[in-house]
Amino acid sequence: MAQDDIFKKIVSHCKEYGFVFPSSEIYDGLGAVYDYGQYGSELKNNIKRYWWEAMTLLNPNVVGIDSAIFMHPKIWKASGHVDAFNDPLIDNKDSKKRYRADVLIEDYLAKIEEKMDKEVQKAKKRFGDSFDEAMFRSTNPRVLKNKEKYEQVHARFAKALNDNNLEELRQIIIDCEIVCPISGTRNWTEVRQFNLMFATEMGSTSEGSMKVYLRPETAQGIFVNFLNVQKTGRMKVPFGIAQIGKAFRNEIVARQFIFRMREFEQMEMQFFVRPGEELSWFEKWKKTRISWHLALGFGKEKYRFHDHEKLAHYANAATDIEYDMPFGFKEVEGIHSRTDFDLKRHEEFSGKKMQYFDPELNKNYTPYVIETSIGLDRMFLSILSAAYTEEQTSNGETRVVLKFPAPLAPVKLAVMPLVKKDGLPEKAEEIIKDLRFDFSCQYDEKDSIGKRYRRQDAIGTPYCVTVDHQTLEDGTVTLRDRDTMEQKRIKISEIHDIVDAKVNMKALLKKIDNE
What we know:
Layout: H1 3-16, E1 20-22, E2 34-36, H2 38-56, E3 62-64, H3 73-79, H4 81-84, E4 86-91, E5 98-100, H5 101-127, H6 133-139, H7 141-162, H8 166-175, E6 192-195, E7 199-202, E8 210-213, H9 219-223, H10 226-232, E9 239-248, E10 263-273, H11 278-294, E11 303-307, E12 317-325, E13 328-339, H12 341-350, E14 356-358, E15 363-365, E16 368-375, H13 376-387, E17 388-392, E18 398-402, E19 413-417, H14 424-435, E20 441-443, H15 449-459, E21 463-467, H16 469-474, E22 476-481, E23 487-491, H17 495-503, H18 505-512
Parallel strand pairs: 3-9, 19-20, 19-21
Antiparallel strand pairs: 1-2, 4-5, 4-6, 7-8, 9-10, 10-16, 11-12, 12-13, 13-16, 14-15, 17-18, 21-22, 22-23
Helix pairs in contact: 2-13, 2-18, 3-12, 5-7, 5-8, 7-8
């Protein structure tokens, strides 16, 4: 099945089964804004909990805060967002559609990579076990030709980004004959910058109002509270401050469902270190963060690091953790060495000292910062993409199952009476009442037991318990596993421990150290 078809099915599945809805749908929606449904909000909360506990429980020197969305406008001047938070945009004159120039070029480069990979896959099928991929890539004329083209465009692209050369970005688009996906033409405008921040006014009267911004990132709320947390928590460098919160960007080219939205959530941690030690900590956090992703069990081949072509004005090292989405490898997490830029800028603009006194060195200094930042909505999409599975059952049917890591599943256990009589519903309710304090449970009595299993598969429930007449006789139930569809008879008293062993968040957290 084509990747585009899989993505369309995932989007459709999200709406049909209560994961994600278009926002304001009865009013024909609002572009690039989505609402999370009953199962989507549970999944989202479980992802947050996994991240939060991995940060704050496994790292005793990391604590959490929750800063305000509205902040003093000088903060965004100090951070550089007022002057430099821009995207390079280009319009196609025929379709009237607007695109990010850098994304058009990145997509072009990705297509060249795909061509090389297809050549490799064809050769792999032809030669079998004797295939030497490294040798093939270094000698095959078609691969070498595409590699040369890729490297030439890539070098121009990287230089244009670093030089902020908008004319060169447009020239690359022209030279590579990149067409508008809608009109199919190359009738492009000039490239220009567009600031992404949403602005509003704070105050009761127009004369007394102050222009403020919806925060485009959560990091600055951490920086301005750096000394508050350090002093009240008696924190010693190195230490980190974590935060989960909403951010807002006026994305003109919002696309790919919840991958790029105007209102989104970030999970960020800023780790404060001694100057000169930042690059070693950068490497440590790269390893720690990829372990967090790999513990989900989706496979190492689904992830890769991608170093930045253009470093942000505050960084001396930066990389992305990319996940293989249905539309290619895309960023889900960024890891950056931000130097001491932010704290020094806030010290300059506020007039307040932002230095730390190090008792071991007996001196004051401005700490350097390592940042880890995840787009929660992107993480949500990557987990859905990995979990979505279509399988042929033994009776020839196709079942759609979301194979979530069990601790993240929205519903952990479904309890079903075989029939809606003879005291079976009452017994099922009794079982749920006992387990609901530990697990998210669901009672389901509608339709045949097979249809109920399929419904639970479609929302990713790891276990189903069926209560039948034998239950009333000997206190046993049938436990069905989502992934294997295996059914076994167990005692009611055994349900808790069996389910808990698989769905407890500890099961995921313990894997991180083993990756």
